[in-house]
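Objective 1b. Sequence-to-structure analysis of Xylose isomerase.
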Amino acid sequence: MTFDPDATGLAYRHYDPDEVVMGKRLEDHLRFAVAYWHSFAWPGGDPFGGQTFDRPWFPDTMDGARLKAEAAFEMFDLLGVPFFCFHDADIRPEGASFAESRKNFEEIIGIFERKMATSKTKLLWGTANLFSHRRFMSGAATNPDPDVFAWSAATVKNCMDATHRLGGQNYVLWGGREGYETLLNTDLKAEMDHMARFLSMVVDYKHKIGFKGTILIEPKPQEPTKHQYDYDVATVFGFLQRYGLETEVKLNIEQGHAILAGHSFEHEIALANALGVFGSIDMNRNDYQSGWDTDQFPNNVPEVALAYYEILRGGGFKTGGTNFDAKLRRQSLDPEDLLAAHAGAMDVCARGLKAAARMLEDGTLETMRRERYAGWKTPASTELLSSDLATIAAKVEAEGIDPQPRSGKQEILENIVNRYV
């Protein structure tokens, strides 16, 4: 049987890393990353069924972890991706003690270091899994047990050291269980104060070790706990501002999480840019009929284009990138399915970014946006904002001001977008 990469979806049709868009290589715009956990550690389960995948590296042993690292870097090279991301628990087996887990972790980090010396793939970010083990059932930084807080802090310290050692460009905190199930047993103020203190320790340690990357928080609503403290961009920014961390921490925004919070992906990106805390993205999609975080690979070019439009409007990625926090469907068993999923997703993102760039270069959308707010560029509007209610009220009555509504032209704007996607 002849193997045809193009017919199987393993050939790029739209992604050329060296294609120049808006003065920058496409690879440098998109900054793709493969997620180690979904691609190499996830067994194919769902809420109603267990493992369907059978990978040779699945035995939870150091031999399995070493083989997993070999397979991962082989796939990184086949795809030609510039970055990858990992949790500590994805790359090493749990030891009988904290010290043994750390030893296992550091051995695999050593393998990564050797692999990265000869690979083009670097580390976009590292993070710690502070949610899967039963010790985290009541949270990590927000846990009522101070021993869990201490374990979590020690784990993050090790992961930050590893991320720094590997030249990672960011470090992410994902509060998978930083929330509560019922207020009947929850001290909200104490939990938020402890979470803020934990984050302050992370920031302090970043400066202590000379880590030049960005500290990122990933907003996550509802799932798995009933209420998450890091619900969405607005919630996280309010938290950062309250505890004086808004200049030290930025956000890693996931498409699926945005949808669970009742927002669009582009809304969360635009808001993060407006607040000065945009950092990076996890690119995936949800099944809109299921109503939960299904972590599917992106395949909707119009959705992706609108997200990249907001990223480009904000100046593009700095230290962040496009991490595919996505997993195969549990019926997609073959290794080539994993390659095809990433290749197809990279094509979708390339198409979306190129469409977004054309929209920006055309300028029609931005021109119409500026025209809608043109009244705020006059001396009278400047005077209005520096005035007070009584003076404004007198002016409205004296001048007989009677504003009339003007069309927002939403359908025309949507038609313009559709020319490009």
